[in-house]
Design brief:
The protein is mainly alpha-helical. The protein is built from three helices and no strands. It is elongated.
């Protein structure tokens, strides 16, 4: 039983060492600061456009009509 456990541990260590060597050999370290900045600006721009659309007169009127319709149905 101990031999099986020792063989499994050795196999696991070998696999982890191989994976660690592969991770260190790659050039990609993840997103850079510039990529985070571009993503953040894009998300903020999308939020601003969405805010303008939702607070625009036609959307507010449509939502108001929807609420009135729902309330009149319930009455």
């Amino acid at each position: 039983m101990d031999e099986e456990l020792q063989a499994g541990t050795t196999t696991l260590r070998t696999a982890l060492a191989r994976r660690w060597a592969q991770a260190q050999a790659t050039d990609e370290d993840g997103m850079s600061t510039a990529e985070y900045a571009v993503g953040t600006v894009a998300a903020c721009a999308f939020a601003a456009v969405l805010y303008k659309v939702v607070t625009g007169g036609s959307v507010v009127a449509a939502l108001g009509d929807l609420v009135e319709s729902a309330l009149s149905t319930l009455s």
